Amino acid sequence: MNFIKRYGMVSGVIAICFCVVVYVVFTTHSIFTISRQINYVAEHPYKAMSEINKIRARVFEMNTYLPIFISETENNLDGIRSVLRTSCQENEKSLKILDEIYLGKKEDLTELNDALDELKKALIQSVENSENNKMDRPAVQKYFDKEIEPIRVKTDTAIQKVIDSADRRVLIIQESTEEKAEAAILYAAVIGLLMIVIVIYAYKLRNEYLINDELKRQQKILQDALLVAQKANDAKRDFLSRMSHEIRTPMNAIIGMSAIAFNYLDDKKRTADCLSKITFSSKHLLMLLNDVLDMSKIENGKLNIRQELFDLKNLVTSLADINYGLATAKGLSFEIVISGFKDELLLGDSMRVNQILLNLLSNAIKFTPKGGSVRLEIRMLRSASDKIWLRFIVKDSGIGMKKEFLEHLYEPFEQADNGIARKYGGTGLGMAITKNLVAIMDGTIEVESQEGAGTTFMVDLPFGVSKVDKKTAAEMEEMRVLVVDDDNDTCEHAAVLLKGMGVNVDWALNGFEAIEKVRSACEDDGRCYDVCFIDWCMPELDGIETARRMRRYVGPDVLIIIISAYDWSGIEEQAKAAGVNAFIAKPFFASNLYNTLLTVSRKPELGFSAVGNKETYDFGGKKVLLVEDNELNMEIASELLKFVNLQVEHAENGKVAIDIFRNSKEKEYALIFMDIQMPLMNGYDAARCIRSSEHPAAGTIPIIAMTANAFNDDVQAAFDAGMNGHLAKPIDVEVLYKTIARYI
Questions:
Q1: d(CA 385, CA 399)
Q2: CA quadruple 75, 81, 86, 88: dihedral sign
Q3: CA–CA separation, 315 vs 347, rounded Å?
Q4: Is there a contact between 20 and 152 (Cβ–Cβ < 8 Å)?
Q5: Is the Cβ–Cβ distance between 369 and 397 less than 8 Å?
Q6: Residue 73 in contact with residue 133, Cβ under 8 Å?
Q7: Cα separations (Å) of 67 from 61, 223, 288?
Q8: Euclidean distance between CA atoms 240 and 248, whole angstroms
Q9: What is the pTM of this model?
Q10: pLDDT tens-digit series, residues 494-550
């Protein structure tokens, strides 16, 4: 039925087009025919009528006026002959034209020609007779009536025949033209009616077809929706199956290691090992949860990006702390290199940048077999007065990816194949989240990968630049520094930072070159370097041996600092014996270099130190108020706070917290930790009541949200309620202590 309707519509359209074409052809032909007939009339009958009327007029003039001229002219017969001759010549011209265009019988023209010739001879004879016999006007008129008039009548009869023939031709053409016009009008009316009928029929078929097509479209939408729903169910089923495996794996470790720890309570080393593995598994479980929540927020359009000041050094240090241990435990080399810029304080969302890089680095470590390498490079692409674009390059020598899979890399729940999913684990959400985060931050992400040859990700992100003034010490302007590293980018980056401080800097790409530079500076120039930064891991001659040989030339006064990738405990004693004074972690940051050189320039009593070691915290027994309704969470938080020498007082809800605070002394509490979801009064309302109270410390005491409400909206709600900060549960111990240090 649908085919018939579609066929009827097409046939109707074809019929309309055919009718239009036929109508246009017929009308054009009719117009052309009428135009041709009009031209025909103009070129033949009309022109013939014009010429024959000219002849008739001349004949009339000669017959009318010639007798008068003959009778009245005083012997001016030569003039009369000239006029007569001219008139006859004009008649001959007209006859010649008629001979070309006349469409009647040729005998008519022959008869007319003979009559005109006879009339011409008679008129000439009349002039000659007048010359020989002087006649008055009556005599001339009598002569003309008798001799000339019969010839004139004969001539007029011949002229009338030609005129009648031309009239008949015009009438025939007129009738033919009228017939053509009537036929064209009739055909136009018929074609018009036919087209109206066809249009109505086609319109009816079209409406029926559109209704049917809309029904089919709705069916297709429903089928597609069903297919999408089935695919979504399949994806969710696979996701839940995968998540079940992913969640049960760390949960098994947590439960199993807890059971083992209970059986080895007297064995501190074994218990510590169990607790370490429980901590690692707990963080892995939290990462899985965060991925699921982030994907949900992205799909619902609720993921927001914050613009706040952050220290790139802290971000990179955190990435190094997390990934260096994972890489070395797997037998991989791990390196972070920064080059091309000096700014450390940037404006952006450090948490999301950290999440992007953690996803990429964890994947690089996960999919790189033992003996491989993972490298993070941070470079400047371009800069403006208040903005900078950085490129983060994560490169590994791992298993790589097939070209076909790269097209689906950023789709949720996608992994290269089930074998890889089983072997390496993962939710399949990490790259989808990464791609969305990069897009939300107005950045770009690109990937290059070859199966069996590793993968390289390039992420370009914009940041605001802090306007904090950079200071340099006058003592550094005379300082000479040597940087030794086999990585050219590291040397160039260090040189940029040091030259920005006014320091005179050289660099060398291996130990032998460095030793020669030191020897030349001390012996030939007589001016040794003040500080030598030496990379520990260099080919042929490592940093410790380079330092040992340098000491032969520089003596004990030059500061030698080993550059190391965050873990120097294994070489500390050996380095001390070689004459190394301190360690500094890669990558270089201006603040670390500045503080180190400032210490050197002011000539302290230098002992062996490690620049950049993790901080230890002791808050001197200050008192904090912990507002928490869950007993287990209260116990955990209390113990963590007591570890750093804090006194903890507990309030089980917001109402109790307000009463305790109002009855306290002005500086009794250094800080308040506030849970959000609590009975009687939640944390937001409690914070507002504290801020609006008449207590002397109401406007100054730091209030930190400590809650499982971890979305950006929750963070903003805490600030809106008058709180100073936000800590998400489960508690990150290092973040907790750094937050306390910021306010105490």
A1: 42
A2: positive
A3: 13
A4: no
A5: no
A6: no
A7: 10, 111, 134
A8: 12
A9: 0.50
A10: 888 888 777 888 889 988 888 888 888 887 777 788 888 888 888 888 888 888 888
For residue 9, the surrounding DSSP H or E stretch is helix 2-43
| Structure tokens, 278 | 């429980």
Spell 523-549 as b/e; 16+ CB within 10 A means b.
eeeeebbbbbbbbbebeebbbbbbbbb
Decide if 264 contacts 274 (C-beta within 8 A).
yes
Which one-letter DSSP state was computed for residue 566? Answer: S
Q: State pLDDT tens for residues 82-130.
A: 777 777 777 778 777 777 776 677 777 777 777 777 777 777 777 777 6
Both tokens of residue 469? 């003034």
Calculate mean pLDDT across residues 435-447. Answer: 87
Cα separation, 445 vs 65, whole angstroms: 112
Output the six-digit token pair for 502. Answer: 């006014």
Reported as half-sphere exposure (CB side, CA atoms, 13 A), residue 657 has a value of 35
Amino acid identity of residue 405, one-letter, is F
Res. 11: pLDDT tops 70: no
Which amino acid, residue 656? V
DSSP string, 653-674: SHHHHHHHHHTS-TTS-SEEEE
Contact between 611 and 591 under an 8 Å Cβ cutoff? The reply is no
Q: From CA 655, how far away is CA 689, in angstroms rounded?
A: 9
For every residue of 447-494, DSSP letters joined together read EEE-TTS-EEEEEEEEEEE--PPP---GGGGG-EEEEE-S-HHHHHHH
Helix axes 149-263, 2-43, angle to 10 degrees: 150
Residues in the chain: 744
Rounded CA-CA distance 511/106 in Å is: 126
First CA to last CA across the chain, in angstroms?
83
- Look-up: residue for tokens 């410390």? 697
DSSP 35-51: HHHHHHHHHTHHHHHHH
H or E element at residue 139: helix 137-143
Say what angle helices 543-554 and 511-519 make with each other, to 10 degrees.
Answer: 10
Please tell me the distance from the alpha carbon of residue 67 to that of residue 139, in angstroms, as a whole number: 10
Q: Angle 126-128-129 (CA atoms, 0-180°, nearest 5)?
A: 65
Q: Give every CB contact of residue 148 below 8 A, 6+ residues apart in sequence.
A: 63, 119, 122, 123, 126
Answer whether 702's CB lies under 8 Å from 741's CB: no
Q: Tokens representing 145? A: 């009536």
